[in-house]
Fold this protein.
Amino acid sequence: MLTAALVIGALLAVAAVWFVARPFLGREPDVLPAEPPPERLALEEERDRALAALKDLEFDHRTGKISDDDYRGLVGDLRRDAAEALKALDRGTPRADARVPD
Amino acid sequence: MPELGRAALVVCFGLALYAVVAGFWGAHTRRRRLSRSAQNALVAAFASTLVASVVLLVALARSDFAFSYVAQHTSRELPMPYKLASFYGGQEGSLLLWLLVLTGYSTAAVLLDRKAGRELVVWVVPVLGVVATFFSMLVVFVASPFHTQLANVDGAGLNSSLQSPYFQIHPPMLYLGYVGLTVPFAFAMGALLSGRTDERWIVATRRWTLAAWMFLGVGQLLGAKWAYEEVGWGGYYAWDPVENAALMPWLAATAFLHSVMVQEKKGMLKVWNMLLVMLAFSLSLFGTFLTRSGVLNSIHSFTESSIGPWFLGFICFVVAASLALLFYRLPMLRAKTKLESLVSREATFLYNNLLLVALCLTILWGVTFPILSEAVRGEAVTVGRPYYNFFFRSFGLPLLLLMGIGPLIAWRRASLSSLKRIFFGPTVFALAVGILLIALGAGSSLPGLIAYTFSAFVAATIVLEFARGTAARRTLSGDSVPRAFTSLIARNRRRYGGYVVHAAIVLLAIGIAGSSAYNTSRSARLGPGQSLKLRDYTLVYRGVTNTRSANAIEERATIDVYRGGSRIAVMHPGKNDYPVEQQVSNEVAIRSDWLTGEDLFLITEQVNGNGTIDFKAIINPLVNMIWLAGLVFVLGSVITLWPDAREEQRLAIRYGRLARAPEPQA
Amino acid sequence: MIALSVAAVLAVFLLYSSIAGGGTPSLRPSSLTGHSGKVSVTGVVLKPVTGDAHGAGLRFRLRDKNGTARVPVVYKGTVPDAFKAGGDIVVDGRFANGVFTAIPGTLITKCPSKYTPKQTT
């Protein structure tokens, strides 16, 4: 019993050490991949938010929660917000990414 | 074998510590290999804990009484399922279970969350490592499950009240909930540490939070059902500190789940969300601290248990460190948008949050008051049920109403005319129901009546939402009603899953209102042949029987139940006597009426020498709504949790793919 | 801003309500003298336990958990399963003329906490 425990224990420790040391044996560069700057992400989130707000408005209108009058009043604002967000994103990007989420 | 268990836990402790040190250093210096190594250490820690857990399970199954833990919590005649379930029946084993679930969740969260982005995960790993280090430290140095002793002939056995199928499921569910709250906390701290204030930490943890919240909710309902059937006083929740310990983090998590929606849509409440996730996690730690440390019996018994001070220290550390970090990053979290109108969906979410947090803090105050008053005045003052009931109603009823209002109000601002139009139908319906209920006698309890009326209102709004959505879908796609219905839900899982969860809460409210505001009871001492009348039931006592089971002597009173002149049931309330554990347990008899949802609850309080019994009968109207609510709750949560391919792709583009390919810019 | 003010109001309200009333002093047999109102007493049940909780009343003495002071208790109402001599209980009632008369149905046995270290009996 004790020897079995010792053997399994030793195997476990060895396996753990190997697994933890593995990354140091690899060939890839040691630097974390660069990520888009926070400003870019913020702009993207802004754009997604504006587009989602439009989508919500459409949905609420279609399901009858928002009357036609209210819809007409709100949709202009939201469309403007979305357009501004898209423009800001285009300005902020070096390459013109016309990536639309849906 | 215990040596293997001990060794595995020491390895786990070492790995967790390494994950902390290497993780922080690697993240700080942006060294990929070190960070990856730390992440591997966390995964290896899970494997180690798994080995230790298997060792304990095997020892329990084989009744190896050389393990002190096995001897203390099991006995030879104990049925196998309970032998295995005793894994978490005691202090040391339950800590091991916590560690197992923690390392399991950590591994899964860190490996599966591609969309989280590497820059966030490298900070999340050491935070998870800190929590894992604490718990592995406890099981290695303070409360080891692998103490050995001279093997006894037989063990002490399992507490009779724990010998119930509920014991097999309630604690694991609760732990999946409690421990699950660590994941959003770690991601939140990771976001603060990485200096990134974008939403990815929320996006990455939404499902984890939902799952933990679901498990915690289900765990509590299971606990309530267990108390209802097993402890048998006719109720299901006693505002006991141990019960409150699970309710508080659940309320905080509920608030969090709602307010993150506001952050997602409007970019507001960033600081509030950070505070909420810290509160939820701290409360889950605090909850388990309360249950384990014995601090609630009296402040003096606090030091009797060795585990208490450690937990308290860790909680203080967590709260202090996370608040400090939040304060440090505060400038980055300031939102640009403000609340536009007090009558908007954002505003209702805010009110909902305020009420939930207020209820949570009220309960916290009630739980800690005895400790604080004893420390200050030398005399422990306990708050009783009236305190909790008062605040539960004061905050809970408006919350119920808000559940119906929120989904119907538009974002940003709602005009008065649209409000009038939308709420007209449900309000009329609710008032009609209210009047009908008064006619039926529900006016005897004002809170109950209000609860029912509000529930009717919310139910109407939910039904209307589904109806309107299905109709809109049909005009778009021309599908039949069933197809439109299912595709509506499939395309809007979060929204409609949420509505199903709200429906579950409505059922819960109805069940709680019915069984607490409108229940009736009666006690009597009955001789054979004598009867007791309660409302429309007549209960006739026939006699007592005694039978032997595997490990108990079962004493049962035979009661014939009559209604409307005919016998509808024979029930057997009684008691079990467990000779090994020297305990007696109350075995109540419950008859659930499926048509009305009410329960006939019979308790044999005392069997007297002269052949009479002291007997109590209770009618709990609508109590089965509570258990039904549990099922609907799970259904709603699962719908909301269900992966949505389109949404996944969109988020992957935003966070995942961008992160993988480095940008060719300065 | 709104949130802070609401929270402040709430805090004041809570403090007031908890200090003003609703709390029941939680005492030990040794500290019962001087309290005439409704209190909660906690302690260890001593043998012998006589009488009938559903009849004329269950009688036993309650001792301080960490002391020797004891008080006779008369209790009527539901008795939880875990109740036995040597166990810890909490019960509400009034102390008068050297006897603690319990309020029916308020007897609670402390959950035999599976987490506290096993005491050697």
In short: Chain A has a mean pLDDT of 78.
